[in-house]
Every structure is written in C-alpha cells, then in structure tokens.
C-alpha cells in the first residue's frame, strides 16, 4: 500500500555526505512554499539525521523502537512548520542505535510507509541513506516511486558515483526526475566572485551528460536560508516533471 501521497520521490546519491538530507529538507520547505502538502520520511535507519537538522528533540528515555519492531503499532507523523515528518530517530533514545540486519531494512521501511498515519500529501520525500545497497534495493519493493532526485557534489568522484546511482535507478525502472549539484562553488564573502572549492567534474563525466536534467545548483554556504530562491527553482522544476507524469 502506498501512503496517501500523490507522488513519492526518493532523494539519493551514490556517495555519503554530499548533502542529501540537507537538500531534501530545504526542498521539502520549498515545496511547502509552492503550496504543496509535504511529507518527509527519513529512511536513513542507521544514521537518522533529520530530527537533529530540524531541531526536533529526541526522547531521552523511550525505547519505542523495540515496541515498534514487535507489532502492529501506528504512529502519527510529527509536524514541523507544516511538514509531516517521520524518522526512526523519533523512536530511539538519543544514544540508542538500530540493530537490524540488512535483509530486514525493507520490512522496517515498509512499516514507516504503512504504519504511519500520513495525512493527504501531494508529495512524500524519502531521504535515502548513502550508497545503493541494502535499503535502496529493497525500497522499490516497498513503495511505488514517481521517481528519484539525485544529489551530487561538484567533484569528479561525486559525479562518477552519482552516475552509478543513476544506472542503478534506471536498471530498476525508476524515473530519474533530475539532479541537484550541492556544494557547487562558494561565493566569496568579500568580492562576490565564485570560487570552485573542489576541482569541478569534467563535462563528459558529469551526470548531466547522461541525460539527467539539472534541477539546480546549491552553493557551499553555512547559511543556506539565503538560497531559498534556488530551492524554489529546484522545487518548481520537480513539480513540473511530476505533474507532466
Ligand atoms: N550547500 C551546503 N553548504 C554548506 N554545508 C552543507 C551544504 N550541504 C550540506 N552541508 C553540510 O554538510 C554535511 C553533510 O550534509 P548531509 O548530512 O545533508 O549529507 P548526506 O548526503 O545526507 O550525508 P549521509 O550520506 O551521511 O546521509 C552537514 O553538516 C551539512 O550541514
Ligand atoms: Mg543523510
């Protein structure tokens, strides 16, 4: 069963640490500004970062994860600034780790999709863990995706790993809705000029040369709130592609 969402979109990358969670969150708020009802599922079961990024306090005491794993419990998504949010982090005490064998990740993910009372959503964004291994491979059996957004860093290696992720998606018949290049240069705070902090990817190695539509580029900046307009552009591109079907 798919949640009450018109579109389910996964956000992933070949690599870790390129900014998937950051981009997913900012994109979620941009889609809210567009007027959509947005859900955000943190599917990084081993390293759920969304609660911390949203400043949502974890329960210091609860061991609700054990309870959750036992049976047919239901959970309300938590609400933050109009976003419906679910993360395994809400079920864990702060220092508690998920101990779950890789083959069970898909079943756990299914619980987060089906046992959470998502209210009517235009889009459910799924923030994937790094890589294209266990959870990603089980994802497709759990939920019918409208497609995926690929986040890459600006470097050669990030695009190289991004391309493998694109191939992985295409091999699973998942539509690649577009790519976001994150940490794409830095605007000098003094002169305003763009600085390429990392050597940029060669054009023929970039994911764009593989037919991935460029949704937008996000600079390296500790204050990403300054770049809301770029995220609005990314959101608009995504909405257009989703509505085009
Ligand atoms: N454009 C940016 N400018 C500055 N800092 C950024 C930017 N994007 C992400 N970061 C920072 O980089 C770090 C990694 O980002 P994030 O956790 O979103 O990556 P991720 O791809 O989700 O990582 P993981 O693979 O571990 O899930 C975080 O500390 C985040 O705040
Ligand atoms: Mg992450």
Give the SSE map.
Blueprint: E1 5-12, H1 20-33, E2 38-42, H2 50-53, H3 64-70, E3 78-80, E4 83-87, H4 105-114, E5 121-127, H5 134-142, E6 147-152, H6 156-171, E7 176-182, E8 186-187, E9 194-195, E10 214-218, H7 228-244
Parallel strand pairs: 1-5, 1-6, 2-4, 2-5, 6-7, 7-10
Antiparallel strand pairs: 3-4, 8-9
This protein binds adenosine-5'-triphosphate and magnesium ion.
Which terms would index this structure?
245 residues, alpha/beta, two-stranded antiparallel ribbon, binds adenosine-5'-triphosphate, binds magnesium ion
Counting DSSP E segments of at least 2 residues, the number of strands comes to 10
Number of helices: 7
Structural class: alpha/beta
What strand line-up does the widest sheet have?
Answer: 3-4-2-5-1-6-7-10
Ligand identities: adenosine-5'-triphosphate, magnesium ion
* Element pattern in H and E: EHEHHEEHEHEHEEEEH
What helical percentage do the residues reach? 25-40%
| Cα shape | globular
Given as residue ranges, the uncertain stretches (5+ residues, pLDDT < 50) are none
Distance between the termini: 20 Å
- The biggest beta sheet, please? 8 strands, mixed
Fraction in beta strands: 15-25%
Mean pLDDT: 91
- Specify Rg, calculated over alpha carbons: 18 Å
